[in-house]
Amino acid sequence: MSAFEHLRDLAEEVRQSEESRLAAPRSMSNSSPVEPPVPLGRALQVPAFPVAVLPAWAGEYVTALAHSTQTPPDLSAMLVLAALATAAARKMRVQVRPGWSEPANLYIAVAMPPGSRKSPVFARVTEPLLAWERRALDWAKPDITDASTRKRVAADLVRQAERAVAGADETAREELTVEAVRANNQADDIVVPVEPRLLADDVTPEALARLLAEQGGRMAILSAEGDIFELMAGRYSRNGAANIGVFLKSWSGDDLRVDRVNRTSEHVEQPALTLGLTVQPEILASISRQPGFRGRGLLARFLWSLPPSNVGSRLTNTPAVPEAVEARYGAELEALTTTLAELEEPEVLTFSQAAAERFEEFEAGLEPRLHAESGDLGHIADWGAKLAGHTARIAGLLHLATHLRDGWGRPIGVESVQGAIAIADYLAAHALAVFDHMGADPNVARAEVILRWLERTDLETFTQRECHRALSKSSFPTAADLDAALNLLCSHGWIEKLPHDRPGPRGGRPASPTFIVNTLWCQNRHNRQNLGRDRGCVDSPGVLSMADDA
Questions:
Q1: Residue 492 sits in a domain of what CATH number?
Q2: N or C: which end of the chain has fewer CB within 10 A?
Q3: In 10 A of CB 467, how many CB atoms?
């Protein structure tokens, strides 16, 4: 057992043995009950996916599948969004206003622990897309067979013509060469259609570029595993370097050119890749540390979901998804995929007047949230800056899913925009939780420095000046950095700032603010240390053990 696990068990024993005494402890600065501190960098509660904003055929399926598999509805709902994006990718663009349009593809990642039944949900949600692939292949087989046969015959004629040239005398060689060239050109003009595909599993960036070129610029990777991140990081590259260019360009629709030695160059116009993945929460931090993933904007392109795990509280013997609900979901998704597949060029969707006004309100409210100092999304502004574009994409998908067979012929209504905004609010809350797991907020790291100092010194009260003098200037380059960390600890209930008097009439330097440490944490900390000494365990301070005390 590790030292951390041992300390955690000791802390749990303290809670159980002193439950009655600590049931309603009094006083930090007054007589009101003291609440346990909120762990830093981890949202205790994140909102549930607003399933009600999905079209009825999709929302009913999400609810039924989540109940049947005993998984959070977030997983099914986010994958349904990925399925809609797969169907609409490169077939639709949303014009927010002149000069700004968004494609329909999405990058989605849901963080869930092992044993969460992700694979069955993936299989059920994506089955209509696989069914479409099978039917599309049946439709394409006659053309593929015909073109392949003609291609082989033409190739045989080319070989015969080349042999004739090689065996001819000089007087006939020129004429036969002309015939060989003509035969070769005719053979080149015969294009064998590729087998139609929508989905791929874990593929290398090089193979993905080839698939995008073959499939007219659109492809989806829907996988219950997060191995694609390892491929992005260069698992199979010769030098081990990350290769994320194809993923960056295939989100935004930038033309993709891939030049390879001794291979045909590949040019993909406006590629549209959709990603629907799950990752384990524990590897979020490792993803963020991959070179270029954050700095080049890859992580900012993802819509993240971090639903709470229900493992250990799931029901058993739950009913299957009703046949009518499953059949309707499959039929509607296949119909949308088929209808859009027949479009040769992307359709441009515009907002109705009411929808445009509502979207502008959303934009105006989002901008202050990106402020580096005062905005709640300031430390993930790279992600937040793309949220308006993501919201426009989702509004387009909701619109098409509501008007399955003629959505591109009418403007996006305010209901679809309002639904997309509700999903955007959900996504923003989950992005904050995910990036906290990734360690994106420097104030969290600084607050943890203060907590380690308090655990090490066993203080119950302290002044801001004492804290500043005791801690390294590298952790707190400016006074504002210390203020922000202390404010964060106050907002999470680890400490409380006591009121202090202003300078007297004669002036003078104001007293340094005084803080009192949460008494619950102090009591559990003391008891844990005592138990550790009794059992011969040396207590090592750490923020994780402090979070367990909460």
A1: 1.10.10
A2: N
A3: 22
- The Cα 24–Cα 45 span in angstroms is 23
Buried b (16+ CB within 10 A) or exposed e, 374-383: ebebebbebb
Within a domain: residue 264? no
Paired strand residues for 412: 351
- Asked if 402 and 376 sit in the same domain, the reply is yes
The 10 Å Cβ neighbour count of residue 464 is 18
**Domain contains 267:** no
- State the Cα–Cα distance between residues 72 and 69, nearest whole angstrom: 9
Residues 430 and 448 in one domain: no
Q: Which of these, 235, 286, 224, 239, lies nearest to 439 by C-alpha position?
A: 286
Same domain, 305 and 383: yes
As beta bridge partners, residue 108 has: 276, 303
Range of the domain at 504: 3-41+441-549
pLDDT tens figures, 77-110: 999 999 999 999 999 999 999 999 999 999 999 9
pLDDT beneath 50, residues of the chain: 1-8, 10-11, 14-15, 17-27, 31, 504, 535-550
Same domain, 426 and 483: no
Whole-prediction pTM: 0.74
